[in-house]
Amino acid sequence: MAEQPHTPTAVEARGGGGQRLRGLVRKEFLQILRDPSSIAIAFVMPVVLLLLFGYGVSLDAEHVPIAIVVDHPTAETADFVGAFEHSRYFSPVRLPDMHVAQRALLAGEVDGIVRIRSDFGRRLRTAGGAPVQVLVNGVDANNGRIVSGYVEGVWSQWLQHQAQARGQPLAQPVQVQQRVWFNSQLRSRNFLVPGLIAVIMTLIGALLTALVVAREWERGTMEALMVTPVAVREILLGKVIPYFLLGTGGMALSVAMAVWLFHVPLRGSFWVLFACASLFLLVALGMGMVISTAAKNQFVAGQVAIIVTFLPAFILSGFIFDINSMPRVVALLTHVIPARYFVAQLQTLFLAGDIWSVILPNALALVIMAAVLMGASRRLFRKRLD
Amino acid sequence: MAASALQPQPPGGAPGADDDIALRFEGVSKTFLAGKRTIQALRGVTLAARHGQVTGLIGPDAAGKTTLMRLAAGLLLPDEGRITALGLDATRDALAVQARLGYMPQRFGLYEDLTVQENLDLYADLQGVPKGARKARYDELMGMTGLGPFTARLAGRLSGGMKQKLGLACTLVRPPRLLLLDEPTVGVDPVSRRELWSIVYRLVQDAGMTVVLSTAYLDEAERCHAVLMLHDGELLGQGPPDEFSAELRGRTFLVNSDAMSKRALQQRLSRNADVTDAIIQGEAVRIVTVEGAAPSADTLLPATQGVTVQPVAPRFEDSFVTLLGARQREADGGQRDFTVAEHGAGGAESGAPVIEVHHLSRRFGDFYAVKGVEFSVNRGEIFGLLGANGAGKSTTFRMLCGLLPATEGKLTVAGVDLRKARAAARGRIGYMSQKFSLYGNLSVRQNLEFFSRAYGLARDRRATRIAWALEQFELQPLADAVSADLSLGYKQRLAMACALMHEPDILFLDEPTSGVDPLARREFWRRINALAEAHVTVLVTTHFMEEAEYCDRVTIMSAGEILALGTPAEIKAGARTAGQPDPTMEDAFIHLIESPAAGHG
Predict the structure, then answer these.
(1) Residue A295 pLDDT more than 70?
(2) What is the percent of chain A with per-residue pLDDT over 70, rounded to a whole number?
(3) Taking CB atoms and an 8 Å cutoff, what residues of chain B touch A26?
(4) Residue B348 has pLDDT above 50, yes or no
(5) pLDDT of B147-206, one tens digit each?
C-alpha cells in the first residue's frame, strides 16, 4: 500500500470518545424530534396523570351527604340543623323518620345519620347535655372516621355559639387550641400533588430509557452500534444525557402545574427542588437502563417498567399510604423504593421549605441509588448479543 | 495526512499470525437456548477466508450464517474453538477487532427516522473519522452508491435497495480491512443486487479490502473467489466455486423434448434412477446424473420422439444439491410421489379464467402500494408474481384473498366478486402466508385438525383429509411433534398442508420458498406441479428469479405496477438484444427496470 499505515488507535485518539458521545447524543435528539412517542411520554403523560390524580384523588371529605332526623322540631333543633347546612363539609337532607334514614344509609345515598331526639331542648340545659345520635357508614373506615369527627366538630362549634349567644361561658375543663402547620387549610391536594410528581417521574424516567434502548434492539441498530469502536459507557451516557434533559422538561412542567393549577404553595427554594429532582431523575433513568439490559423489546420493557417501578412507587412511597402505619416488614421494604426519598423531599420542599435535616439524608439515599443503578447497568450491559 | 487514515490498515497485530488469512475459525461450536430447547447453531466449524478476496458464506436459513458472522465480529462468544480475525483473537480482543472490521447486520443497522446524511454523520462520529476527511469520503461513498441526490431523505423512506447501499456506506465510512456483510442481497431487487456486487468488487480490487458475505442465493456463489458452504451448522465444503462444480464435470445436461411439456418432462426425468436432480431451466430441463452414467435420449426417455440431450457446464447449485441430496437420501431414503385428487369442482373448464383483476389499486395514505394492476389467471395454471420486497406482491395477494379491501378496481375470484361476497370466495381458496402462521405450540396433527375444523369439514372428511396430509406431506413420523420445533422446510410443508385441508380450487402461496434450502425448494415445486396437474390454480409470489421458469405465466412487478406479463419465454424474448442473445429471467428483469418504456409499451 502506498499510503502511510495508521493504526486504529491513532484514529480513535484523534476522534476520541467525545466525538462518539456527541454523535450519539445528537442522534438521540433527532430521534426525539422525529418520533413523537418520547415527547408524549415526557410531556403528555405527566399532564394527563396529574390532571387525573390531582383532581380525582382527594382524601378530604367535603359535601358529605348526611341524613338528619329530627323527632320533635323546635327552634333549637332548627338552629342546630342550620349549622350542618352552613358547613362546607356536609350536604344534609332532612328525612321524616329513622326507617327512611336507615334505608337511605343502606342504599348508600347518605354516609351517616344524625338523629335529634325529642328531649333535645330539655336535656340541652342539664348537666349531662343533650344526646345526639350519630350513625356512620363504617364500610369505608377512613371516611367514617372523618365524618364522625366532623359531626363532633359541628356539634361543639354550635354549642360554643349557643353559649356565646346566651352570654354565658361554656364550662369546658380543657380548651383545645388547634394549630395546623404547613398545610393550614388541611387540603390533601397539597401533599398529594408533590407526592404524585415523584410517582409520575419514576414512571417517565424508567419508561423513557427502557423503551428507547429496547427500540434499538428491536430495530437491529444496537447490533450495528456494537461493532463500532464505541464504549459501553458512551452508549449508556448517550441515552442518559438526552433523556435526562427531556425528563427535566417533564419535571418542570409538573412543578408548574402543581404551583399554578393546583395552587400548592412552594415554600422551599426552586434551586434545591431542581437539584433534588435532577438527582431523582438520574435514579429513575438508571432503573430504565437496568431494565433495558434484560428486556429487549418495547412491549416487555414497558410492562416491566410499569410493574417494577410505577406500582411500588405508587403504593410504597408514602405518597398516599403513610409509611409509619405500615406493618414493619412492609415499612422496611419501602427503603428500596427510590420514590420514597423523593416524596419526602418534595412534600417538605413544597409545604415546609428548605429543611436540610430532611433534604440531605434523603438526597444521600438517592445518590447511593443512582450510583448503584448506573453501575449495575454499566456492568450488565455487554457489547455482545448472547 | 487526514486522508491516509481512511485507507485500510495493513496486516499488523499478533506475531506469528498467518498473514494470508483474514478470518480463521478453528473447531468453533455455538449453541443457543430457546426456551427449553438447545439449538446447535454451529458444530465444530473450521474455516479460513483469505485476504483480498470475496468469500461467500452460502447456505439456507438456519444454517448458522448469522451466528458465524456475529462470532467473527466479536458479538457472540463461542462455546468451543478459536476465532482469529485479522490476526487478533475475536473473543478476547473483541474491541480491537471491532475497530478494524466493518460489519453490516441483516437489517442494515440504519436509523430510519434519521436522514441519509445524519446516518452517515453518526457512523462517522462513532468510527472516529476526522472532520476534515469527511467531505471527501462522503463524496466518494455517495458517488459509489448513487445516493448523492437523496442525502436529505429519511432512511425509512428509501427503497430496499437504497437502504442496503446506505447501510453499506455507513459501514464503509472508515474503510475497514475486513468487511462482513450478513445477507446484504436478500429480498433486494436484481438491479440493486448487481450494483452491490460491483461495489464489492471495487472495494476488493481498488482498496484491497477483504469481504466475507453471506447469502442464501446459490447463483451468487459463482461471483465469489471462495465459497464456504454451510448447512445445519456444519461446513459442507470450502474452496473456489469452480472447484465445487468441477467434480460434476460430464454429469450435467440440458434435455429438450418436442413431444412433452417441460413440466411433464421434468417429472419423468426426476423418476429416472440415473438422475439425481432435474429442474426446469428456460424451455429445457437441466439434469445432473449419477457418476459414470452416460445419458442419451434413448436411455433417459425410451420410446419418446424428438428428445435432445446436450451437455452443459456444471454450476455451483448442482454441486450444492448433489452434496445435500446425498446426505438427505442417507437419512430418509429419497422422495416419493405426491398425489392430489382431481379438482373437477367449479364447473370451469381447464383454461377458463378463474381470477380476473381489472385496474386494481391499493393506496395507503398517499402511497400507492398497488397501482392499476390488470391480469387474469386460468384454471390449472401456475401464475407467478415476481418482484423485489416492496414491489406490491403481497398487497395484491391480500386483496385477492379478500384480506384487504381494494381502493379501486374490480376483482373476481372463482366467479365471485370479492367486493360483494368475500366469505363465499374464501371457501374456495387456500392461502399460505409469508410468515409461519400456524400455532407453534400445537402439534402437527392438532394444527391440521384445527384448520380442517376452521374450514367446516365434517368429521369423516376431516379424518380422511388429515390422513391424506400426513401421508402425502410425509409428516406421519412428526404428527405429534410440536410445530414450533420443526425445521423450516417441515414448517413450510405443514403450512401448505393446512392451506389444502378443504381442497381449494385456488391456492395462494406468498413467498413459500424464501429461506428454505434448495432441496426443500425443489420438493415444494414438485407438489405445486402436482396440484396444477390436478387442475388446481396456483398463484405464487417469489423473489427468486429462476423460480419464474417453473410458472406457466408470470408478471413482473415493481413499485406497485406491472412491468411485464406473459410466459417466461415471452418475457425473456422481450429482453433479447445483440449483446445478450440468451437472457436469463434476471437479465430480463433488469432490462425491464432499466428501460421503463419497454415495460409499458
Answers:
(1) yes
(2) 89
(3) 121-122, 125
(4) no
(5) 988 999 999 888 778 898 999 999 999 999 999 999 888 777 788 888 899 999 999 998
How far apart are the C-alpha atoms of B187 and B388, rounded to whole Å? 6
**How would residue A4 be classed by pLDDT, with cut points 50, 70 and 90?**
very low
CB proximity A18 to B under 8 Å: no
Provide the grid cell at A217: 434492539
Q: Are B218 and B232 in contact (CB under 8 A)?
A: no
B window 116-145, beta carbon within 8 A of A:
118, 121-130
Could you report the per-residue pLDDT of A179-237, keeping only the tens digit for each?
A: 767 666 667 788 888 989 999 999 999 999 999 999 999 888 999 998 888 888 999 99
- Least confident residue range of A231-240, B13-22, B224-233, B254-263: B13-22
| CA distances from residue B289 to B29, B155, B318 in whole angstroms, order as listed | 35, 49, 10
Interval B277-336: pLDDT, tens: 888 887 788 888 888 777 777 778 777 778 888 898 888 888 888 887 777 666 655 555
Q: Is the ipTM of this complex over 0.90?
A: no
Please give the C-alpha separations between residue A122 and each of A72, B108, B524, in angstroms, as whole numbers. 11, 93, 103
Interhelix angle B518-533/B262-271, rounded to 10 degrees, is: 120
Supply the pLDDT for residue B8: 45
| Kind plus residue range of the DSSP H or E element containing B280 | strand B275-281
CA angle B215, B396, B590 (to 5 degrees): 45
B529: nearest Cα among B308, B366, B380: B380
- How far is C-alpha B233 from the chain's CA centre? 19
Domains of chain B: 3-239 (3.40.50.300), 248-332 (3.30.70), 438-503 (no CATH)
For chains A and B, count residue pairs whose Cβ atoms are closer than 8 Å. Answer: 135
Q: Which architecture does CATH list for A64-165?
A: 3-Layer(aba) Sandwich (3.40)
Using a CB–CB cutoff of 8 Å, tell me whether A386 touches chain B.
Answer: yes
Contact B75 A385 (CB under 8 A): yes
B128 to chain A nearest CA, in Å? Answer: 4
Within 8 A by CB and 6+ apart from A255, the residues are A197, A266, A273, A277
Among A219, A221, A227, pick the best mutation site for testing chain B contact (most B Cβ within 10 A): A227
B429 pairs with which residues across the strands?
A: B506
Q: Is the pLDDT of residue B601 over 50?
A: no
- Give the residues across from B238 on adjacent strands: B228
List chain A domain ranges.
22-57+186-380, 64-165
Point out the residue among B70, B95, B111 whose CB comes nearest to the CB of A385. B70
Nearest Cα residue to A251 out of A278, A272, A270, A271:
A278
A223 vs B contacts (CB less than 8 Å): 70, 75, 105, 109
**Taking Cα atoms as reference points, which of A88, A96, A69 lies closest to residue A80?**
A69
Q: Global pTM?
A: 0.79
User: Do the Cβ atoms of B130 and A14 come within 8 Å?
Assistant: yes
Q: Is A123 on the interface with B (CB under 8 A)?
A: no
Give, in degrees to the nearest 5, the angle at Cα B197 between B193 and B201: 170
Cell numbers linked to B324: 445435500
Report whether pLDDT(A57) > 90: no
Q: What is the mean pLDDT of chain B?
A: 84
CA separation for the pair A205, A244 (Å, rounded): 8
Cα–Cα distance measured from residue B414 to residue A241, given in angstroms and rounded to the nearest whole number = 60
Closest residue of chain B to A30, computed from CA coordinates: B114
Nearest CA in chain A to B105: A224
* pLDDT recorded at residue A173: 56
- CB-based contact (8 Å) between B421 and chain A? no
CB B63 within 8 A of CB B231: yes
